[in-house]
């Protein structure tokens, strides 16, 4: 439905969120956890938010010898990983032809960083390396995609070799990937993965707490941030103060890993990172069906709107413990359906409701999109849902994450604050971005601590080394340019995932093909 979005800051995460399947096996150690009974009065580094960004920041700080003497506190408004990461689709898939080669290569590195950590530490999070199968449901959409891939092959053959185009006439390949023959065509991308994201994040956080490297304070929302001008605080370096219902806390560095909720604390990001409510489901597969071979994206189904971008992974099957030969698990983790929403989505920061229009669509659509197989599916009109829930994404106005030194938290100010950092705004594509964005901001903080290199020079080295795309860096010039673009609400109303031509380039000017606000959370 058309959004009636009014430009307003995000609220705090709501108390009574909808029930995500990923939270159905909560981490007992972290549930309600407070490492210290009282909120610390001060810390060297305070991380706000405990999704994949916050957890990645914490683990890279713990792994860096330069931070060994720093006290690190993580503040979470609700339980650990109860924001977008704990509500997403379980995808960790780089978009190879939707963005510039620089960004695509960065996303490939991110997926590798997640996979490497899981393998090194044997994280029990159902990781699976898969091919990303994306189906396009109108000839026009598919023709545009093929042009983008042709351009990628010419400009970056290494990345181009990771993508295969499958025409609708190739019935054998379509069937092998279980996609309905009505699709206009497919792309198959290498380098993707899927996982139980909540278990991945809570493993990292629990490990750091048990090692004594991290103080975690759950159910501690940050209501505002102020800068201290007192001489004593300035001399000690504790220039920032976080305000919470449990008291105040001084910090030398605050890193906001707040994604869709960013503008609650940074009002000048109200129209740059906008909360958007999106929907997910965990569906029981048809009896007797076999696990799908890929992760999936479906673009333009039922109507051809490029805004209509659905996504799917399937969990593994497990033998039932009762020994009767039945199987458990295998949930089809299916999200999207925003074209069928009955409630406003843009500007909404409460994840306590389930949209009946999206929920109905998600239960019905897969039977038309894919060949799910199984017994007794004749005449089946919808799949049974185990869980249906919502989550809040942070849509970036210029389609890129915002990483680096944050502007003042005073509304309208364009000065950059010492000790205030931001890593947010993934536009529904955080899993293959947030890990190394978190590492980049950690490196920035530690470079600032060393006082041996100017911030601008250090950022230049990060960009030249491929450790952060230039288009992700927060600058006053970028903020001004983003304000000149159509608003997130306007882009959304226009089906604007493709955006104007300016969104198809890095700052360096290299063409990226389509620059999709992909729904893969």
The DSSP helix count reads 12
Strand segment count:
19
Number of domains: 1
Which radius of gyration do the C-alpha atoms yield? 22 Å
Relative helix content: 25-40%
Instruction: Please tell me the CATH architecture by its name.
Output: 3-Layer(bba) Sandwich
The CATH homologous superfamily corresponds to: FAD/NAD(P)-binding domain
Q: For the record, give the distance between the C-alpha atoms at the N and C termini, rounded to a whole number.
A: 21 Å
Based on the model shown, name its key terms.
8-stranded mixed β-sheet, FAD/NAD(P)-binding domain, 12 helices, 19 strands, alpha+beta, about 525 residues
Report on this model:
Pfam families: DAO (PF01266). This is FAD dependent oxidoreductase domain-containing protein. InterPro entries: FAD-dep_OxRdtase, FAD/NAD-bd_sf. The protein has 521 residues and is α+β, with helices and mostly antiparallel strands. It has a single domain, classed as FAD/NAD(P)-binding domain, CATH 3.50.50.60. 26% of the residues lie in helices and 23% in strands. It contains twelve helices and 19 strands. Strands 3, 4, 5, 6, 11, 12, 13, 16 and 17 form a nine-stranded mixed β-sheet that branches. Helix 1 runs parallel beside helix 6 and helix 1 crosses helix 9. The chain is globular, with a radius of gyration of 22 Å. The two termini are 21 Å apart. The C terminus is likely disordered.
